[in-house]
Design goal:
- The protein contains 13 helices and twelve strands.
- The chain has a seven-stranded mixed β-sheet, with helices on both faces.
- The two termini are 27 Å apart.
- The C terminus is likely disordered.
Length: 365
Amino acid sequence: MEIALDVMGGDFSPEEIIKGAFFYSKEKDSIITLLGEKAIVEKILEKYPFDKEKVKIIDCPDKISNEALPLEAIKGKKNSPVMKGMDLLKNGEAEVFLSAGNSGAVMAAAILKLGCLPGISRPAIAVIIPTLNGNKVILDMGANVDSKPLHLLHFALMGASYAKYVLDIEQPKVALLNIGEEMNKGNRLTREAYILLKNREDLNFIGNIEGRDIFMGRADVTVCDGFIGNIVLKTAEGLSNMFMTDFKLSLLRNLPDNNTSEVLKERFAEYASKRNYKTYGGAPLLGINGLCFICHGRSKAEAIKNALHSASLFAENKGLEHLKALDLNSKYTPQYESQQETEQKDSCYDTGIFDHGDSLETDDH
């Protein structure tokens, strides 16, 4: 397997990214193509003795800032790691691309270079989260600021496939995130989406769940639009950090110096590790015609290593082929869109990242 890795994206790039790739290469036989400024990459590689058969370097001198808007970030940047990575995927020279850089730029480049899978009009970011009932999937985590009912159905189908082939859950329980469990609760989007999901015999749909149910692990796949999903993700991250910090300051700091204290500290460290994003690595951009994984911007070596493992597992399990094989048709026509909206062609380009007045044309397209 060949993996393309953006080593210039992220708060701790390039060294932590390359370090994570090195740790991964010691555990797997994949070939990793490091995308970045060649002179910088070669200097860092002196610290990490890669097997020369497992690593390549492609010089990518163009830089993409984290602050740039998606299309602004990739215009005129054909020699950036993100654009080079998409070229490798498109040309079949890599099976997976990963980046901890500007996620909007990754999504824009993926859509423009690779396009969406047939039948998919919106991609979705799927995140693995820890719960009291094991690891689960939630999507969309921010790829779309506005969604239609059919998009949520597609998210559900793709999320179920991801849970099956990465988390090894044979028949994932799928739920719709809502403000109540009853099918008539919520706004027009969730009410229409509920009917679409309920009418799918090939989907193990268990109905609506509320926010408090997510981390109890009631559903294997939780579906929502990207605006809500991103708020859920950032709120959970902040709450987790608050709890961990408060626990350490109020309890662990005041423990007596004895064996029991050491055991408690060890158990807390194990617990904290299970709740840390580093443990789960990257999140796939499902629905794109290629395997693209987005990593946390603060990813260090451990997170990158784990992201590479997750990505390679999905590729080894023929994840893209399974997504292409999904039956995306719906026998039910939602009433959510107006007649005018229904007649307009919904496309992969019609996402929130293109809502800034940018032209879809780039120098690299």
